[in-house]
Write a structure and sequence with these properties.
mainly alpha, single chain, methyltransferase, aspartic-type endopeptidase activity, globular, EC 3.4.23.43, methyltransferase activity, 188 residues, 9 helices, Prepilin_IV_endopep_pep
């Protein structure tokens, strides 16, 4: 119950943060608070205590990024760039292997950058900027998590595409959703 209430509060604060950003997103607080509370509760039920800061951070950051991407069609630099040090601190506190995290960061970032260079309309710049931080988490979970999360992210994006206009399909929700799922149900 305490984790759910904390997630609710974090979601409310996140909604305020989104509105306060220079190029923020006007997302009502329930759209951030309810998913954050639910994801924090789920993570607390299945994640080892030492690893818990990682899925909690991903849930909070992921809900804010997904809300901004769905509402405004972009992932704000004010969230994607600070994700790198935030993820580094969370992984360090969880005792993750720094070499694997760095490797995952570089591989996932390079893959997304290559896709962006080959087909600019396939991914936005924010997706590429965010991919390195998410890749660090995936690399810390396992090397196999990188291609699995990429496939799950694509599947989530395809599901969103069913109800989304043809132009400006957001990939951010799929990226953060797949990474969160992998971080929670990773190989413990």
């Amino acid at each position: 119950m305490l984790v759910a209430l904390s997630g609710l509060g974090a979601g409310v604060l996140g909604s305020r943060l989104l509105r306060a950003l220079p190029r923020g997103a006007d997302v009502r607080w329930p759209w951030c608070a309810a998913p954050t509370a639910a994801l924090w509760s789920a993570a607390a039920l299945v994640s080892p205590p030492r690893w818990l800061p990682v899925p909690l951070l991903l849930a909070w950051l992921g809900v804010l990024l997904a809300a901004a991407d769905l509402r405004c069609g972009r992932l704000p630099d004010a969230l994607t760039l600070p994700a790198y040090p935030a993820v580094a601190v969370a992984l360090w506190s969880a005792g993750a292997d720094p070499g694997r995290a760095l490797g995952g960061c570089l591989v996932f970032l390079a893959a997304h950058l290559a896709v962006r260079r080959l087909r600019r309309s396939a991914l936005g710049g924010g997706d590429v900027k965010l991919s390195g931080a998410l890749g660090a988490v995936l690399g810390a979970v396992s090397w196999q998590a990188l291609p699995v999360a990429a496939a799950v992210a694509s599947a989530i994006t395809l599901v969103v595409a069913v109800r989304w206009p043809a132009d400006g399909l957001p990939h951010g929700p799929g990226l953060v959703g797949a990474t969160w799922l992998t971080s929670v149900w990773g190989p413990w």
